[in-house]
């Protein structure tokens, strides 16, 4: 077994780990990045399926995501705007599709009034939340003890308003049933995007894409690290103490002064820690779980919906695919739609055969775009729930009461071990932007710690 020594060991070659590794190298520290998969990128993955380039993982860039925007520019990548010319489509409780423009769904005047009123209320609450410390709000304990669904239903008995308000953080973002997470967790999701209004504005959240795919960000960051990135190296054990850490994979032993766990917290239990992590970490990690969503890619010989004057943007809390968008690649003659099937709907379709699941999902898309949607030339489902090193999508969030109870300890280092990933970000929470921010933050903390240790040694 090969043995190597570095200043910092990083577990996970996603955006957080690779950002941290590059920052540490710039500061003069040596690094080794151990990645369990056979590729870099984590939850970013651009692949060619049946001749079509598909963004299997994360893909969008929104205008508030400064860390991601800066990284994309610094790497010399280009972006392009999501296609959004024409009408959007909304399917109401009657099953009828309605074309509309603007942000507000074509609901009754009374339902529109209720949605606007509650959105204003939520924006005011979100404005008081620090996304880095949501548990410090005076009402945090109370807001963490009521479910998102129960809070909304306490505001109004308009079911259509509740469903439209709920799915922005439920099906669309946290990808859990709205009774399974708290109001506080929902407010954090909104605060991380700047406001609840931002979160429900598809033109804001899903603004641009990277030409050639967002996985180029980690690929290019990894290229700069060269031989310091080790693929197919799941860490089996991590010994830690006052003198540093030693990680063991099937092929390598890596000793370092510091370690960064830069992967989803649901995977911490795949590593045997010697000694075990403190009880606080054992407890808090059991209260985090991944959401579940299927990202559906349907490629057609042309973007036929544009001929009908449709933007490709579609929503419905009543449909199997609760939202869908034009996802046509830059400069591509073919047209691509991307749809999402979330939480309990995703559970249900995986009880079906692959063929029946495809049929049901395409049927749902046809309710937005017409019968042509049923006949793609390429069809693919991103199923991160079956991925050994991910186990869900998009990210991890706390169960009821967990955010207020444990949130403050989520990023707290344990001896020489630090934690960094999008699942624990404030701004950019659960997004690539948050992963980059966390990578930068932890790297700067380790650089500071390393300097103070060196200075103390020199003074002795």
From TrEMBL:
Cofactor requirements of the protein: FAD
Gene3D superfamilies: FAD/NAD(P)-binding domain (3.50.50.60)
Positions of FAD binding: 35-36, 235
Presence of keyword Oxidoreductase: yes
Pfam families tied to this protein: Amino_oxidase
Transmembrane segments: none
All residue ranges annotated as the Amine oxidase domain in the record: 16-446
A GO term for molecular function: oxidoreductase activity
Keywords of the record: Oxidoreductase
Binding site for substrate: 340
Record-stated family: Belongs to the flavin monoamine oxidase family.
PANTHER family: AMINE OXIDASE, AMINE OXIDASE [FLAVIN-CONTAINING] B
UniProt protein name: Putrescine oxidase
Organism: Microbacterium saperdae
